[in-house]
């Protein structure tokens, strides 16, 4: 038996490389596409807030707060977006990372999580947001999926 596999590699014209030069260093990231998120922060019982951005701008620490009747589940699925000309653009991940870990926030509780900004290149000075995919876990199994977001600045 002979199995033939073909791999076709193409170029995506929607991808834009952004490179900026400062007096001391060159920093860059790649814009993957205009933001696909039409609706964010549509779960009124859950919020996301920034507590810290590391001094080297490689990680961001956020706090999930949940006041709903169920449980909030979040994991390591997230995107970083940059705002340019009043539009949001998703950044392309420079490192492939797959994780199916889930964390639970009980009603009335908060939970802290850190995310790697460096997965998306080196961020230049600008206005960004992190978008984290969450699930409102309902007891009957009719879970609802949402995107929580919080904006932050890199100086």
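^ Assign residues to that structure.
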């Amino acid at each position: 038996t002979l199995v033939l596999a073909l791999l076709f590699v193409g170029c995506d014209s929607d991808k834009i490389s952004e490179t900026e030069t400062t007096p001391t260093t060159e920093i860059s990231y790649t814009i993957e596409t205009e933001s696909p998120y039409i609706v964010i922060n549509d779960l009124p019982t859950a919020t996301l807030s920034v507590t810290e951005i590391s001094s080297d701008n490689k990680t961001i620490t956020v706090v999930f707060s949940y006041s709903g009747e169920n449980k909030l589940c979040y994991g390591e699925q997230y995107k970083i977006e940059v705002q340019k000309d009043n539009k949001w653009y998703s950044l392309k991940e420079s490192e492939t990372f797959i994780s199916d870990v889930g964390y639970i926030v009980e009603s009335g509780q908060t939970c802290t999580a850190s995310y790697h900004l460096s997965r998306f290149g080196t961020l230049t000075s600008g206005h960004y947001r992190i978008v984290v995919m969450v699930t409102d876990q309902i007891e009957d199994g009719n879970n609802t999926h949402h995107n929580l977001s919080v904006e932050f600045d890199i100086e």
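Confidence is low (pLDDT under 50) at residues 1-27.
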